[in-house]
Each structure stands twice: as C-alpha cells, then as structure tokens.
Amino acid sequence: MSFSNAPISFPGLFGDWQFTVPSKALNIGNGIYWYGIIIAVGMLLGLYFCMKQAHKYGLSEDNIIDTVLWAIPFSIIGARIYYVLFYLDLFRNSDGSINWSSTYRIWDGGLAIYGGVIAGFLTAYLFSRRKKISFWALTDCCVQGLFIGQAIGRWGNFINREAFGGLTDLPWRMRLWTSGTTYVDVHPTFLYESLWNLIGLLLLYLALWLILGIYLVPTVMKKLVGLMNDEVLLVFSLGLCFLMAVLAEEIGLSTELGAFLAGSLLAGTVHAERAEHLF
C-alpha cells in the first residue's frame, strides 16, 4: 500500500494535528521531491563541516571537495546497484526475464545507503592513492560528515511516508491515515535512526575532545582518533542493523546484512591494523 501523500499525525504527542505536505515539492519533469532536497541539504552541511575540520587531519578543503565530487556520483551508482541486486525480483518481467530499462530509473525510487557508503569509501581510497594523501585521515574526517548527512537525510523518509516500523501503541507512535476514517500506528524508525546518528556524532566529538585534552605525541594522538572513528562507525552499523531488523516495515536478511557489512567491513577490518601499529 502506498502512503506517499497520506496525512501523518502523532496523536500521543500532538493530538489531532496532521502533517499534510506532499512528497513532491515541484511538479517539473519527473518531479522534484522533498526527499532529494533534504538529502542534498544533509550532504552540503556534512561537506561544510568536514571542510572546516580538514586541517585537523592534515588535509586541505580542496582535498575534501575533490573527494566528494568523485564520491557522490559513484555512491549513487553503488546505491542503485546494491538495491537492484538484492531486490532483483522487482525488476523482472512476467516471464522471469530482467527488465533492464527499469534498473537505472532511480527517479522511480530504489537506492540503498549501504551500497552508497561502500562505493563512496572505495572511491575515496582510489582518490587518495592517486593524489597521494592519507586515506585514513580522509575517512576519519569524512565519517563525521556521514553522521550529519544521515541524521538529516532520514527526514526524507518521513516526507516520503516510508521506512517506518511495525505497529505500536507507544506515546510517540506515528499515525498514517489511509482514508478519512482508517489509519495505522507505526514506529517512526526514521526518527530513531536520525537520533542514533546524532548521538553517534556527539559521542565521537566527546571522545575526540577527551583524547585531544590529553598530552600525547601527535602520531599516537592521530591513531587514537582513528581508532575511535572505527569504533563509532562499527557501533553505528550494529545499531542500524538492529533498527532495521526489529522495526522496519519490510525487512529481509539481505537488508540486515547490508546494514552491518556497510559499517563493519569499512571499520572493523581496519581497526586491528591501526591498533597493532598504535605504539
């Protein structure tokens, strides 16, 4: 059932007040959607934040901008490929063959953040090798922007009336009206993940403040910062996996694994290497 323009309310918090803004902001071409606008705002704020933090990691603002300019298009491609591969049945014709023309229609929906994150990190790795800059410094700086982008971007799911959880009667339940008299009360999982990202960013900043407050030699300090970023990203992926597995509207094993692998493969696999060479 589609909820793309269904009224939204939070009866346990705001009574009879309803949110009625449509998912489409402008009816131009295939449409300009609030989801895309919110994602763009999240990316720009994350980029701005990373640019201002770049000097702390021995990077320039140009290093960050150049990386993002390469990473964004490849991340979109990676997010689409991931979605198509794990939801291939959605792109089949009635005879079982693949409808290839539908696989690239991203304007019809279908992007997976896990594929985007993996493609983005791979792009950053190749870019850092080519420009001879530290990949670890680049990722340590940009992971903070990832938290910001996700915290803001998840509100696009709210506007789209998607990625909500199972039925609930909790005070903060989200009510989706399917008609003038019928509705469903569900978990606002977009809010859970947005808050999870915000908490992750705050914890990371607190940890960095504590580390930078200790008188350590620069080399050890930078490695401690890197280890902390790995830990936070890994915890983020575990939390995201839990949210999707327990609360998501439509969940499968592939989605759970994607949520975990996107973080753990990028953080956990390098954590041991950093720790081994810490001192």
What's the quick description here?
With about 280 residues, this protein is of the alpha+beta class.
Portion of residues in helices?
A: 55-70%
Task: Please give the oligomerization state of what you see.
Answer: single chain
- Overall mean pLDDT score? 78
Which band does the percent of strand residues land in? 5-15%
Report the structural category: alpha+beta
Spell out the helices and strands N to C. EHEEEHHHHHEEHHH
Low-confidence stretches: 214-221, 248-254, 269-279
Query: Could you tell me the radius of gyration in angstroms?
Result: 20 Å
Overall 3D form: globular
Biggest sheet, open or closed, and with what strands and sense? 4 strands, antiparallel
Number of helical runs?
Answer: 9
Could you give the distance between the termini? 56 Å
Q: Compute the number of strand runs.
A: 6
Neighbour order of strands in the largest sheet: 2-1-5-6
Description of the structure:
62% of the residues lie in helices and 6% in strands. The protein contains nine helices and six strands. It has helices at residues 11-14, 34-53, 61-86, 113-131, 135-153, 155-160, 189-212, 218-247, 253-276, and strands at residues 8-9, 18-19, 24-26, 32-33, 174-177, 183-186. It has a four-stranded antiparallel sheet, with no helix packed on it. A hairpin with a 5-residue loop joins strand 5 (174-177) and strand 6 (183-186). The longest helix is centred in the C-terminal third of the chain and has 30 residues, at 218-247. The model is unreliable at 214-221, 248-254 and 269-279 (pLDDT under 50).
